[in-house]
Amino acid sequence: MRNRGFTIIELLIVIAVITILVGLALPRFKGMQDEGNIVKAKGELRTLQSAVESCYIHSGNTYPSALSNLTSQTPQLVATLPTDPFNVGNNYGYAVTTNGKYYLIYSVGPAGGGSATVSASGTITETNGTSCIYASNAGSDSQP
């Protein structure tokens, strides 16, 4: 009587094929995760932008000095600040010009190191690469 089953060589070949297929698929999933985080960041930035604009209207035409001030404004538009999906555990970046005319809210972006500044004339400059995602009353983001 002969036992039927798989040999160790056959099992190793199957494991090798599965490993190769997983190795090919993982980078694609990473790209999909980045795309999802980009959409999430853009949506959250629009929400924060609306809250900043509302704060401007309700507080004597001045932008908040920090995003954390949005949670204590009346009327309260943001109960808790969302965190940057590309900078886990950290809030989005925020800047107001010295003349108080322009503001900028930004995410570090998919590369994880992007930042931006806004000048008193309303010029937005991306620093540390171009992967930064931002919302501002000085202009809109065309990347990524």
Summary?
Helices cover 35% and strands 15% of the residues. It is of the alpha+beta class. The strands form 2 sheets. It has a 3-stranded antiparallel sheet, covered by helices on one side. The chain has a two-stranded antiparallel ribbon with strand order 3-4.
Explain how this protein is built.
- This protein has one helix at 8-58; strands at 93-96, 103-107, 115-118, 124-127, 133-136.
- By secondary structure, the protein is of the alpha+beta class.
- The strands form two sheets. A three-stranded antiparallel sheet has the order 1-2-5, with helices on one face.
- The longest helix has 51 residues, at 8-58.
- It is elongated and about 90 Å long.
Structural class by SSE content: alpha+beta
Query: Strand-residue fraction?
Result: 5-15%
Which consecutive residue ranges, at least 5 long each, have pLDDT under 50? Answer: none
Reported for the largest beta sheet, the result is:
3 strands, antiparallel
Biggest sheet: strand arrangement: 1-2-5
Helix tally equals: 1
Q: In percent, how helical is the residue content? A: 25-40%
Order of helices and strands: HEEEEE
Average of pLDDT: 86
Distance between the termini: 65 Å
Overall outline = elongated
Radius of gyration: 23 Å
Number of strands: 5
